[in-house]
């Protein structure tokens, strides 16, 4: 069974005005769809990987044959990251986390305001295309990191909880070169219940 493009879990216009309808449509139906198709194409010669979870493939890319490893790193990362991207948002969300996740943020990163400031700085300051992340390390500690292109925190032994996509396709139609405005807007649609579920898992 090849990897499948998940349906968008809400309407294209659901994240307005923070993420515009056209960008959401293009981001899902073109970019996410292309990562999915190119991941499948890269693995055609090695169909045994279709039976694996994408997370397990990314955890140890050394097991992927060398002739397709770069393509799987890029397109597999893009596929997985976008699967996470759409499920971390929802209309009428935003606000702050509660419960165990909020406590862990306070203990590790100082406060929610401090965490937000640090993740914003990571996302805005990343050169070129890539992602800023809130992840957990092997010991369960929260960490903020960045990855270039579609390199995945999973390949570094981390479990991503929340990602900020700062590829230009994520924001350029609405925000042009104002990446900082996009990153500020991002927080208004974060579904903290979904992020907390990943944290608790």
- Count of discrete alpha- or pi-helical segments spanning 4 or more residues: 8
Computed CA radius of gyration, to the nearest angstrom: 17 Å
CATH fold assignment of the largest domain:
minor pseudopilin epsh fold
The biggest sheet amounts to: 3 strands, antiparallel
Please indicate the percent range of residues in DSSP E strands (runs of 2 or more): 5-15%
The residue fraction in helices comes out at 40-55%
Through-space gap between termini: 26 Å
Task: Assign the CATH class of the largest domain.
Answer: Alpha Beta
Q: What gross morphology would you assign?
A: globular
Based on secondary structure, the structural category is mainly alpha
Spell out the CATH superfamily of the largest domain.
Iron/manganese superoxide dismutase, C-terminal domain
Low-confidence stretches are: none
Total count of domains: 2
| H/E series | HHHHHEEEHHH
CATH architecture of the largest domain: 3-Layer(bab) Sandwich
Number of strands: 3
**Mean pLDDT across residues:** 97
Write the topology of this structure.
Blueprint: H1 21-42, H2 54-59, H3 66-87, H4 99-109, H5 112-125, E1 130-136, E2 142-148, E3 159-165, H6 172-175, H7 179-186, H8 192-200
Antiparallel strand pairs: 1-2, 1-3
Distinctive features:
201 residues, mainly alpha, Helix Hairpins, minor pseudopilin epsh fold, 2 domains, three-stranded antiparallel β-sheet, 8 helices, 3 strands, 48% helix
Question: Could you describe the 3D structure shown?
Answer:
- The protein is mainly alpha-helical and 201 residues long.
- It folds into two domains: 21-87, Fe,Mn superoxide dismutase (SOD) domain (Helix Hairpins, Orthogonal Bundle); 99-200, Iron/manganese superoxide dismutase, C-terminal domain (minor pseudopilin epsh fold).
- Helices cover 48% and strands 10% of the residues.
- The chain has eight helices and three strands.
- The protein has a three-stranded antiparallel sheet with strand order 2-1-3.
- A hairpin with a 5-residue loop joins β1 (130-136) and β2.
- The longest helix is centred in the N-terminal third of the chain and has 22 residues, at 21-42.
- The protein is globular, with a radius of gyration of 17 Å.
């Amino acid at each position: 069974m090849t990897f499948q493009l998940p349906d968008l879990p809400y309407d294209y216009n659901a994240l307005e005005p923070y993420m515009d309808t056209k960008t959401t449509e293009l981001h899902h139906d073109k970019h996410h769809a292309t990562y999915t198709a190119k991941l499948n194409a890269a693995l055609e010669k090695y169909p045994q990987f279709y039976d694996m979870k994408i997370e397990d493939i990314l955890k140890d890319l050394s097991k992927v044959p060398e002739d397709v490893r770069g393509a799987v790193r890029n397109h597999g990362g893009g596929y997985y990251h976008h699967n996470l991207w759409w499920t971390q948002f929802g209309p009428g969300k935003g606000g702050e986390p509660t419960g165990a996740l909020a406590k862990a943020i306070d203990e590790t990163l100082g406060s929610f305001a401090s965490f937000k400031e640090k993740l914003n700085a990571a996302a805005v300051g990343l050169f070129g295309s890539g992602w800023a992340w809130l992840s957990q390390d092997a010991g369960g500690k929260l960490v903020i990191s960045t990855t270039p292109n579609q390199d995945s925190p999973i390949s570094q032994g981390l479990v991503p909880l929340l990602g900020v996509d700062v590829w230009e396709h994520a924001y350029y139609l609405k925000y042009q070169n104002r990446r900082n405005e996009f990153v500020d807007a991002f927080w208004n649609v974060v579904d903290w219940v979904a992020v907390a579920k990943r944290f608790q898992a």
